[in-house]
């Protein structure tokens, strides 16, 4: 086998001719001279239509490719321009890279694949690129993937949610597909105008096909859903209901802690300080010290323990479907209303206001796990994508990770 043929296999560039490979001793990189195969030449870089040649462009160009062994590899080629009837004078298509990219498709896909899976510093060190570059690459990869498969196609049952990031200073509105179990749309902002942009992208015809919408109780979501898909059944989602109950519990905890402090009960106040997580967690997840803490609360602080029991009971009740669940919810509402705990009396009122959506939730069984896990995963991604200056990169990474758009690693045969 000749050297060039081995290199062709090593580089994995399809529809291209490897003309020669040299080691650049100064830069310690491998430079492979390539050219597009005959059928790939003279095409518009945007639409790939065959076009008239225009000029030689800016001469030879380089694209960063995946490493070979321990050395970075660059592909080098002419980058002539063509004249496309639709796109004007543009750099001609090359089979090894996306239009306008300074990296090869194989490199882009490697970055996107890795960025979904691992920490920022790992991606940057392994691939020798800045996080800014990762942002540009994931945006490019996600854009291409969305153009190939419209994420808004075939939506029937959706969930709408808001997610905070940058320590609660910024928000994204996200839409998930309950059937495909994917993230399908996200945009910065949490208001009617933002959500209307989703329905604009969806279009009236596809909006009519939406049968169920799950969301928290936010008015801005309910209003736009009523306006754009009035026929859909509106469902509450258990994730947010539990969050309401947890907030009520936390309010009670703060009240009793303040009371203990004001009355000079140092031991009581100190004991309550670490109680937050013991109260928050599901009983099955409690560590032993947290179990002890909870037992201490039960013995010494009746109102706080009552609030805890209300929260736990609520969490269980809203998982019981159908008429039985509905009756238990009635019982719970009566209990909360009589609890003499203001936050829970108010919570009961709020739940009565949203009763229809909650009944729909109990009846229709939309996947709670999806909203919950999307929520958690996006928050994790947010922390990682924190360094992205623009929100597009953050959303692109979320679509790759949660929208089913993660590319395969180059050169691997997929089943
Ligand atoms: Zn074109």
How many separate helices?
17
Fraction in beta strands: 15-25%
Distance between the amino and carboxyl termini = 29 Å
Order of helices and strands: HEEEEEEEHHHEEEHHEHEHHHHHHHHHH
Low-confidence stretches: none
Ligand list = zinc ion
Radius of gyration, in Å, reads 28 Å
Which descriptor suits the 3D outline? elongated
Taking all residues together, what is the mean pLDDT? Answer: 89
Largest sheet: 5 strands, mixed
Derived structural class: alpha/beta
- What is the β-strand count? 12
Output the strand order for the largest sheet: 10-9-8-11-12
Could you explain how this protein is built, in words?
With 415 residues, the protein is an alpha/beta fold. Among the domains are: 1-98, no CATH class; 238-364. Helices cover 50% and strands 19% of the residues. The chain has 17 helices and 12 strands. The protein has helices at 3-11, 105-117, 120-127, 131-148, 192-202, 204-208, 219-228, 238-262, 266-273, 275-280, 288-300, 302-317, 322-337, 342-353, 355-364, 368-384, 391-402, and strands spanning 16-24, 29-36, 52-55, 60-68, 71-78, 81-84, 88-91, 157-165, 170-177, 182-188, 212-215, 233-236. The strands form 3 sheets. It has a 5-stranded mixed sheet, with helices on both faces. A 4-stranded mixed sheet has the order 1-2-5-4. Strands 3-6-7 form a 3-stranded antiparallel sheet, with no helix packed on it. A hairpin with a 2-residue loop joins strand 4 (60-68) and strand 5 (71-78). Helix 8 (238-262) runs antiparallel to helix 12 and helix 16 (368-384) packs across helix 17 (391-402). It is elongated, with a radius of gyration of 28 Å. Bound molecules: zinc ion (ZN). The site of zinc ion has 7 residues, from loops.
